[in-house]
């Protein structure tokens, strides 16, 4: 029986000569100082309350600056409408649409019907070429003079520089 060791050894030497050195050259190795620097996230805790007589109430709760990215972690909203009115929907309306479960909270001390929605989520928005509003919309049954509604919105997340 013949040994294949001389043939295998010669093949290994030929491959090593063709492929060159197995150690990376210093010019090919990235150093941590040349890696892209990351900017720390800026915390965002926004709150805005608005009133409207419309059946679609839009709350522009936060503006994403041009070139920035917003990561939303939590949104909560409270709608107050005249007694007998109801809130059918609360959702993120711009720049994306996400619907929230609306819960009836009963009547407040002023006789208004109260509805709320709260959601933990992870949504990344942007970057956009120009400032872009994050809009939360509340939709209800009635509208018009004397039917003023209030929509309060809280938003928590982080603002990033990509």
Automatic annotation (TrEMBL):
Signal peptide: 1-24
Keywords: Signal
Superkingdom of the source species: Bacteria
UniProt key word Signal: yes
Name this protein carries in UniProt: AMIN domain-containing protein
Species the sequence originates in: Pyxidicoccus parkwayensis
